[in-house]
């Protein structure tokens, strides 16, 4: 797995982490926005917004982790294939010296 993949996954997790103060600030922003629209801020509306943020972060994290998995799997598969080829070459070389 590349360092870049680790960084993408870490960035996605960082975006998903909201502290209590972050939640309070974002809740205030939501209330202000609703009042500017002459709409009633609701608990349900706030939860929907928080849910959306978590869902976005989950998708970002899932994408980064999936990409890292595929790259790691490809590297492992390549290494396994090279190991098998080397073992076959060694086996053939041993057979030649036995004859």
Describe this structure in words.
- This protein is mostly helical and 99 residues long.
- The chain has helices at residues 3-16, 20-36, 43-98.
- It contains 3 helices and no strands.
- Helix 1 runs antiparallel to helix 3.
- The protein starts with a helix and ends with a helix.
What are the SSEs and their pairings?
Layout: H1 3-16, H2 20-36, H3 43-98
Proportion of strand residues: under 5%
Q: Count all strands and give the number.
A: 0
Order of helices and strands: HHH
The termini sit apart by 44 Å
Largest sheet: none
**In DSSP terms, counting alpha (H) and pi (I) runs of 4 or more, how many helices?**
3
User: What gross morphology would you assign?
Assistant: rod-shaped
> Portion of residues in helices?
over 70%
Multimeric status of the protein:
single chain
What structural class do the secondary elements suggest? mainly alpha
How large, in whole angstroms, is the Cα Rg?
26 Å
Tell me, rounded to a whole number, the average pLDDT: 82
Unreliable spans: none
């Amino acid at each position: 797995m590349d360092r870049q993949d680790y960084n993408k996954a870490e960035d996605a997790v960082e975006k998903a982490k909201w502290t209590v103060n972050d939640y309070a600030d974002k809740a205030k922003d939501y209330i202000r926005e609703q009042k500017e629209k002459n709409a009633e801020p609701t608990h349900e509306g706030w939860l929907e917004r928080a849910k959306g943020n978590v869902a976005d972060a989950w998708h970002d994290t899932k994408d980064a982790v999936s990409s890292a998995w595929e790259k790691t799997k490809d590297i492992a598969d390549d290494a396994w294939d090279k190991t098998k080829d080397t073992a076959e070459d060694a086996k053939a070389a041993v057979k030649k010296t036995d004859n």
